[in-house]
Amino acid sequence: MHHYGLDTNHYVSAPALSWDGMLKMTGVKIELFTDMTMHDFTEKAKRGGITTSGSHGKNVHPMYIGMVVDEITQVLSFDQDNWLAPYIAKNTNLRQQSKNSFEKDFFKLMNNSVYGKTMENVRKYQDVKLMRMINENDEKKFLKKVRKPSFKYARQLGNTLVGAHMGKASVILNKPIIIGASVLGLSKLLMYRFWYGFVKEKYGNKVRLGYMDTDSFIYHVETEDIYKDMAERPDLFDLNDTKTIGLFKDETPGNVITESYHIRAKSYHYVLADKSTKSKHKGVSKKGMSDMAKDTYFPSLGGTLLDDTVEKDEIFDPMTQVYRDCLFENNIFYAKNVGMPLGTNHEAAEKIAIGTKLPEKY
Fold it and tell me: Gene3D superfamilies annotated for this entry (predicted)?
């Protein structure tokens, strides 16, 4: 690709391409850890981004609003430089100039993939041994693999082939995980500063946190004009979708959220003013959730439910009703993970899709 001066035919994945493109452009030589203590210390610092639902967010107390640090037991010192900034800025500019969704997604991926390479856990690498299963001798060879301590699991690949997944006997800790740990730490700092330094400071008790993910918020605020408030802070908000790094954008521009339900991390649902909806339910396929919601409520539309005082609009979207009943009626809903073709040895199984015993979060 002419943007990075690399031949994509030599790469099998975007992360590998993005990593080499970054190294070629920046010319940086990243120093890896040679001290195991430093590596282990940094590995423990790889804590994920903040993802929480409802009032859980109120339990955070940074130092500058009252938290007291009693003791510091260990510190890692290092020289800091913004060597990655030119690469990130280049992809951001290319994304802003993109003329179609493919290019926008690609240049976003080229940034995200570099971050992913700094977070790779080489301890989880596996070797997959493809083994024939034709005769008794093949079976003995396979059982020999199974008896090894490094054996993880096996997967049948047809009638005469098995894939034996083996853990690595040894690994080379050659990933710059200090970069990924720093990015995660800075992302949490950005989120804390926004919430406590702007939102809580401006609105006080008139704002309530509904849900937050690594880089986003859903919060209920009492104010005359939220769009005017955001326009007054161009240093915090990007209202023109310019893809500026570090600024928050409105995910539903011009379409106010009228209802919002949050079950747990990665599980939420909201309704917009135009009656459209958006859901997130990690761990369950979209089709599985959709089928479950329709099967639960649509059969009732021809029965007594329409004779009740409930407005038809209130039950128009079955997924909204699922989240309502989960939160306010403490119902538990089961769904099947469907959407992918099942093999001859696969079975469709139900699992708990959403359910909560927590206080209502609405």
Answer: Palm domain of DNA polymerase (3.90.1600.10)
> Helix-strand-coil percent breakdown of the chain, rounded to 5?
40, 20, 40
**Residues above pLDDT 70, as percent of the chain:** 86
Strand partners of residue 155: 163
Report the distance separating Cα 289 and Cα 336, nearest Å.
8
Distance separating alpha carbons of residues 243 and 175, to the nearest angstrom: 29
DSSP structure class, residue 181: H
Q: Give strand pairing partners of 277.
A: 271
Q: What is the rounded distance in angstroms from the CA atom of residue 286 to the CA atom of residue 292?
A: 10
Tokens of 349: 């199984």
The token duo for 75 is 């510190």
For 145, counting Cβ atoms within 10 Å of its Cβ (0-12 exposed, 13-18 middle, 19+ buried), the class is middle
pLDDT digits (tens, 9 = 90+) for 72-96: 988 998 888 899 999 999 999 999 8
Q: Using CA atoms, how far apart are residues 220 and 223, in angstroms rounded to an integer?
A: 10
Cα–Cα distance for residue pair 353/291, rounded to 1 Å: 12
Read off the tokens for 242. 């310019």
Does the global pTM surpass 0.90? no
131 DSSP β-pair partners: 162
Q: What is the dihedral angle through the alpha carbons of 267, 270, 276, 279, rounded to the nearest 10 degrees?
A: 0
The whole-angstrom separation of Cα 159 and Cα 74 is: 55
pLDDT at 185 over 50: yes
**Paired tokens of 216:** 């986003």
Mean pLDDT score of the chain, rounded to an integer? 85
As a whole number of angstroms, the distance between CA 215 and CA 230 comes to: 17
Write out the H or E segment, with its range, that includes residue 262: strand 257-264
Q: Are 48 and 214 in contact (CB under 8 A)?
A: yes
Would you list the domain boundaries of the chain?
126-167, 181-354
Angle at 131 between CA 174 and CA 347, to 5 degrees: 95
Q: Give 31's DSSP letter.
A: P
